[in-house]
Amino acid sequence: MGEPPDSADEIAALATTATAPIATDGLPVVARQLKDGNVTIGILLVSHRQGEDAAAFLVDAISRYCMDRLRVQLEVSELAEENQVLRGALAIDVRQSDILSNSGTMNSLIQSAIRAAASTATVVIQGETGTGKELLAKLIHAHSHRAHKPLVSINAGALSPSLLESELFGHAKGAFTGADQERRGLFDIANGGTLFLDEVGEITLEAQVRLLRVLQERTFCRVGDHIPIPADVRIVAATHRDLGAEVKTGRFREDLFYRLNVVNLQIPPLRERREDIPLLVNHFLQKYNRQNYKNVEEVPRHVLEMFINYPWPGNIRELENCIQKSVVLAPGNVLIEELV
């Protein structure tokens, strides 16, 4: 295939021997001169060869060409803008639909999370284990002005106090035995973005003091160093504990509690939103059918009622594990009661 025509060829195509008062074989030469910015040369070429009628035609042809190109550019721009709006709307719907629910309580919670996301406030998400606290934190980050920056997560309850500080703030070379090089912490990595502190109620009082200092001063120091580093990080914390009760018993600092608990979102346990169970069962069936190349599609009514009536102390995580096991072990396309 040949090269696509340039603007000079397009202008020349507007002329024919019947319509143009200028030799068409010369028109591309003139058009290219104008395209390259040689307006004076283009005019001289026309006026020298054909006179005023040819010049008038060339002006008209180029004007029509420019108007057509402008119209196309405007249409492309409008389509691109519309596409961007639709993509943005779709992205929001997709992110919201990650939290599957038919519950009015949950839908109200999701809308509260989206409104909180638009602010700069710290957020505490409370709920039992397995209710989806991290998923709600991801939703908040995705709807915030920090969405283009990192979302960094850490389970604060799974680390010792010294390791937690090193993970959060990093450490200087030689800060302790084995620290043979400088290491960045999560506050540094999450700069400009969001830090999700899961199980924040489990951290020690000593670590709480350092976390409070970061929230107050918006700076931190690496372990073994005294050079302050700016901390432009939004905190979203989660816990299965009642932090207010923890404050009363002295296990959680009151000043840190009020720093964190600007917006409080309570996720209800699955037993309080049983209307979501059929939706979740179907979702996990599809997920684990795909992963395990199975075709378990039928859930007998009595099995579904058993799912709905069970209290699910492990919440959505427990339900998901149950469906995964049942799909893997199912001999056919029916979810049988014996495997639940």
Summarize the structure in words.
With 340 residues, this protein is an alpha/beta fold. 52% of the residues lie in helices and 9% in strands. The protein has 14 helices and 9 strands. It has helices spanning 7-13, 27-35, 39-49, 52-97, 104-117, 133-142, 161-169, 186-189, 205-217, 243-249, 254-260, 277-292, 301-309, 315-329; strands spanning 123-126, 151-155, 170-171, 183-184, 194-198, 219-220, 229-230, 234-239, 263-266. The strands form 3 sheets. It has a 5-stranded parallel β-sheet with strand order 2-5-8-1-9. It has a two-stranded antiparallel ribbon with strand order 3-4. A two-stranded antiparallel sheet has the order 6-7. It is globular, with a radius of gyration of 33 Å. The model is unreliable at 81-95 (pLDDT under 50).
